Automatic annotation (TrEMBL):
Pfam families: DUF1801. The lineage of its organism: Bacteria, Pseudomonadati, Pseudomonadota, Gammaproteobacteria, Lysobacterales. It comes from Lysobacter hankyongensis. This is YdhG-like domain-containing protein. SUPFAM superfamilies: YdhG-like. It comes from the Bacteria. Residues 20-131 form the YdhG-like domain.
Amino acid sequence: MVTSTATTVDAYLAALPPERREVAAALRALIRRHLPEGYAEAMTWGMPTYEVPLDRYPDTYNGKPLAYVGFAAQKNNYALYLMCVYSDSAQERALREAAAAMGTTLDMGKSCLRFRALDRLPLDAIGTLIASHPVDEYIALYEASRATSGSAGAAKNTAAKTPAAKNVAKKTAASKPAAKKTPAAAKPQARAKAVPKRG
């Protein structure tokens, strides 16, 4: 990933060639037009980001502000990072369906949407997605995902304290199939079958 040493988004845009600056500026305008209050524009990870300030939410796994959206002008394409998609598969499906409706497909990983031209993106759907998570709801979604993955036990306890986190956790749990329990009596038999007989 190409990173920048610029300290402000204005400086980042100014350093781009004119045609790439035009696309990056349009992305910035789209994000800012739909961004809920409480997120801050910054330069983190060498690219423009829209994040939850640390004074609002310091309990992140890496000590950096909780990223919500980011974008970058790469060498051969552009990248739009939608972190709420990483935490919410329903949002990803909605985005892909919006792209299919306009006759295109998305080049998208867990949260990174790569593209070469803005007209290949479902911009209205992206705007709706960005607008869909106020800061408190996004923090709750983040905490619930950490609790579900088991990566932070403390986050599980914290998430349980907020009503929004409880709702997110319930939806996440309901979407997963129940694990089948193996009867205790069956375990020794299964183990015995796996051991070859000696002649």
